[in-house]
Design brief:
Blueprint: E1 2-7, H1 14-17, H2 20-27, E2 32-37, E3 50-51, E4 61-62, H3 64-74, E5 80-90, H4 93-100, E6 104-109, E7 125-128, H5 138-149, H6 160-164, E8 182-183, E9 186-187, H7 197-215, H8 227-244
Parallel strand pairs: 1-2, 1-6, 5-6, 5-7
Antiparallel strand pairs: 3-4, 8-9
This protein binds adenine.
Adenine (ADE) binds at residues 84-86, 128-130, 132-134, 136-137, 140.
Amino acid sequence: MKIDILTLFPAMFAGPFEESIISRARQRGLLDIKLWNIRDYALDKHQQVDDYPYGGGAGMVMKADVLCRAINAVRCPGAHLVYLSPQGSRLVQSTVVRLAEKSHLILLCGHYEGIDERVMNEVDEELSIGDYVLSGGELAAMVVVDAVTRLIPGVLGDETSAQEESFAEGLLEYPHYTRPKTFQGREVPEVLLSGHHENIRRWRKKLSLERTLVKRPDLLLGRHFDQEERQMLEEILFEGENQVK
Ligand code: ADE
């Protein structure tokens, strides 16, 4: 996958892109990230990238001509241009899955009060990483790159790990344990030591359901529960009732 990032602050990306999974994916040629400094596309003497808003008001607006020159420098047919902004639709895992299927993403990071509205003609999708205002789109772009990279085939060592984790099936993940078997007097659940794969699968599924119900019940709204899940939910609710009494 190719990702071009248009930003006024390319140096911000150095740390996150040079560590861990993203760095490994780049080294292995699975991910080709290029950072482009928007300021390089400002042609005037002072390389001005922003200007006062028409109609007055606080803040500066990123200039349409500069942004469009930057976009045209990286855009190829088939590229998908994402503008990171607090006004975008909220990034969720299904969006990440869809973006991971693209061969070329362009991530446009805004700053100041935003971009000249006429640049929106060039944008395929506007995304927000949450309902809060960041000082620019850079941190949001890093979040997108991280979440997408993990889904590129071959990036994660164990191909099943992206499949099984939180949100992949619309549920939170089950609890994990590693050695030692006893820690501060607390034991690892017996079933995980049993070697009985079907019991372990069922235990994990049930704990995923229970955790989602307790921590993020909103994720279950509109979900189609299969027969096994319905049975497990009944057990969870029954056990819950008995605990209260
Ligand atoms: N730019 C500023 N705030 C943002 C947010 N919440 N998501 C994406 N881009 C942003």
